Amino acid sequence: KEIYLKSIMLPIIDYCSSIILMLGDEKVKTIQRLINKAMRITLKLPRDSDVKDMHFKLKLMSVRQRINFNALKLINKTIIRESPANLNSKFRTRATMRQRTLRSDLNIDIPAWRNKYATNSIFVHSIKYYNDFTSKFNASEGFIDNLKSYVNDMF
User: What are phi and psi of 26, to 5 degrees?
Assistant: First the structure.
């Protein structure tokens, strides 16, 4: 049951995380409830068991954490040029915008959109989270482990 959960159900969330990013909180909660049911069945626990304990026992992140983890991982792949060229054009670091060197040069420039929907989009929030992550951790050393601890602390 654990193998089924980790090899069938969770990769679907990982694969569709860019779409799930756009869903509202109620839809994400619905997906989380389905994963919680699967975890209870896997661990053979009663209905009133603690969700955080189940996540800890199975070493899993919540749906929201997985979504944000995958979004930040995608931004990092884009920055280090491991993604298609059309994605690379969506991100500009601050170093490419000026002549002098500053401490925040590795930060990604957040587009100045006037549309409220665009400024509240997950694209903008992911950039903010990525900039915060790079200010706390070195993005090149142990990226995945540092990102997991950052996501677990933030969300």
Answer: -65, -40
- Cα dist. 122→6, 67, 127 in Å? 26, 10, 8
Residues in the chain: 155
Find residue 108's DSSP bridge partners.
Answer: 93
Residues 116 and 133 sit within 8 Å (Cβ to Cβ) = no
pLDDT at 24: 77
pTM: 0.75
Which tokens is 146 given? 């540092």
User: Do 129 and 73 contact (CB within 8 A), yes or no?
Assistant: no
How many angstroms separate the CA atoms of 22 and 52, rounded? 25
- For 23, phi then psi, to 5°, come to -75, 155
Q: How far apart are CA 62 and CA 154, in angstroms?
A: 12
Smallest Cα–Cα separation from 57: which of 123, 106, 1? 1
Identity of the amino acid at 133: F
